Amino acid sequence: MLEKAGLDEVWYMVSPENPLKHGSTDLAPEQMRLRMVEAALKNERRLRASDYEFRLPKPSYTWNTLRHLRMDYPEHTFVLIIGGDNWVHFHRWAHYVEILRDYEVAVYPRRDDSRDTSVPIPIEEEIEKGNIEVKGIMHIEVPLLDVSSTMVRQRIRCGEDITSLIPETVVAEVEKYSLYR
To answer: pLDDT: is 114 or 47 the higher one?
Structure first.
């Protein structure tokens, strides 16, 4: 994503409360999730874990995070990276029109076998009709890494091996704190 989208670095925003997962008991505490992201990115100089959203009002709406980032880091240009599974439902996000107008969006391919590919993605229909102003959308062509956090948590609950899915440093954190069991 760094190379294909022409980015200097990627900030992984650990969300204390995703509005789409509000009330979920499936997630580890925010500080623990931050530690796992930090562990995963430990040796990656252009990738960094961020607790920025911990200081913002909850729930964590992306449009609010982006607005605050722009105010706090005016020298930076922010690009929102989302998975293709989120792109399909982007029209349900709070202030999605403003996000598309004010920020570039890079879409990472994700397998979404549940989606009927003959049915157009609603947001793309609106953009094509000219109903939404768009700063820029990049559908990034990179190899598909068919791993999701939901899949990892489910495998842990079932007692299955996860060592091929996530960095060993994160596996150690999961085992140390008996997460997702």
So the answer is: 47
